[in-house]
Write a structure and sequence with these properties.
Blueprint (H helix, E strand, L loop, with lengths): L26 H6 L5 H7 L11 H11 L5 H4 L10 H6 L30 E5 L2 E7 L24 H13 L5 E6 L7 H12 L6 E5 L2 H4 L6 H8 L5 E5 L9 H12 L3 E7 L8 H13 L3 E6 L14 H11 L10 E6 L4 E4 L5 E3 L5 E4 L5 E4 L13
Parallel strand pairs: 2-3, 3-4, 4-5, 5-6, 6-7, 7-8
Antiparallel strand pairs: 1-2, 8-9, 10-11, 11-12
Helix pairs in contact: 9-10
Length: about 400
């Protein structure tokens, strides 16, 4: 297996603005008019995309299995229909999603393992922080999402009683220092609901910071209104927003404006991305992403190796490809622009940097991992783990 990053594919020059301008700058409109089928895309963009070469029946099967949702704003960034376009590849189902490998799992990182999931809406993998699943709703259903089972599934919605129980649990866990709002996408909540949760968390004395993981600056940036940014900045605890830009084409002027509104209010904004085949696994595309993030004053924070999500083998690279990419990037972009290349160890063991001393390579090429929970795990570079909790 070659360890060199694949060469950059020829792509047309990218602009920083959507092509069409006939849709409103209203996040609710984009959320409400999200496409859930190829027919919806054709209605939203008549004559724009040539879909004649697509396997429509295969895509329909993938939609039936995993659903689809993509805002007009985000689809407008695509230049052509098909997997060769990075935006289309990220937003529109692919017939290959119906091909599920035995190693892939519905809960690839162990969110719902009994020992890590004390009650609905809460996961805790580390002593000092916990996840609060504020909502299962997203504006876009990303094709690589590791929570496909959850996104858009009303069974995971937190009603008032479940939220109250989650907040009481957090208040009783005195080792916690940070709560991370995730989902779904917390920014699909109304301003009032979101701020109420943040204020209630801020009154818990042992907490020191709050984090919001969101793709809204990427897929629906009009959500970051001046009013919302001001309310996040006024929170009693520091709020950090972690966005999820995967390609330079996503860094539009609208996205940059959304981030500037957050930064102006003192809300730090970081980025985590996922290493995705055909999207950002070549050196030139990834370098362009990192520089676009710097242009927008977003700090690259983490580059995640693709999780073992059902139907995503066409989007996952090998670990060797990721390591070769990081070697090629080092020395060609500023050090503060290099993210940490991380693996979320299957079975709920936590995230580790794919580098010594956390990871070493055995004689057979298998990765030997020292997980944050103190366990030793094995992870072959082709993505077939063994010895995890879920298989125990």
């Amino acid at each position: 297996m070659s360890t060199e990053p694949r060469p950059s594919p020829p792509t047309p020059a990218l602009t920083r603005e959507p092509v069409a301008r006939a849709v409103p700058d209203d996040w609710r409109w984009h959320h409400a008019h999200a496409a859930t089928s190829l027919d919806d895309i054709e209605r939203l963009f008549p004559g724009r995309f040539d879909m004649s070469a697509l396997d429509r029946s295969g895509i329909v099967r993938a939609i039936a299995r995993y659903g689809m949702r993509a805002t007009p704003y985000y689809l407008d960034l695509a230049r052509r229909a098909g997997a060769s376009d990075p935006i289309w590849r990220l937003a529109v189902p692919d017939e290959r999603e119906t091909h599920v490998l035995p190693v892939e799992r519905e809960d690839p990182i162990g969110d719902e393992l009994p020992g890590l999931h004390p009650l609905p809406g809460v996961t805790r993998r580390y002593r000092d922080r916990a996840l609060l699943f504020a909502t299962p709703t997203c504006s876009v259903h990303c094709r690589h999402c590791f929570r496909k089972r959850m996104v858009g599934n009303a069974e995971y919605a937190l009603d008032d009683a479940a939220l109250e129980a989650a907040l009481r649990w957090i208040a009783g866990e005195h080792d916690l220092r940070e709560v991370i709002l995730t989902g779904g996408d917390p920014l699909t909540l109304s301003d009032g609901r979101l701020v109420d949760v943040l204020q209630r968390l801020s009154r818990i004395e042992h907490l020191r910071s709050l984090r919001i993981h969101t793709r809204m600056p990427v897929v629906n940036p009009h959500r970051i209104t001046p009013e919302l940014a001001a309310r996040l900045g006024a929170c009693a605890l520091p709020v950090v927003v972690v966005a999820h830009f995967n390609h330079a084409a996503e860094l539009t002027d609208a996205a940059s404006l959304a981030v500037q509104r957050l930064l102006t209010q003192g809300v730090a904004t970081l980025n985590q991305s996922v290493l995705l085949a055909g999207v950002n696994d070549d050196v030139d595309s990834h370098r362009a992403l990192l520089w676009a993030l710097l242009d927008a004053r977003i700090r690259p924070y983490a580059l995640h190796h693709g999780d073992l999500v059902p139907g995503t083998s066409h989007l996952r690279t090998s670990v060797d490809t990721g390591l070769a990419l990081m070697r090629a990037l080092r020395g060609t972009v500023p050090g503060h622009a290099l993210p940490r290349y991380l693996l979320d160890v299957p079975g709920g063991h936590g995230k580790v940097p794919l580098e010594p001393p956390w990871v070493t390579t055995g004689a057979d090429g298998t990765l030997e991992i020292e997980a944050p929970d103190g366990s030793r795990q094995r992870y072959p570079p082709d993505g077939a783990p063994s010895g995890d909790r879920q298989g125990a």
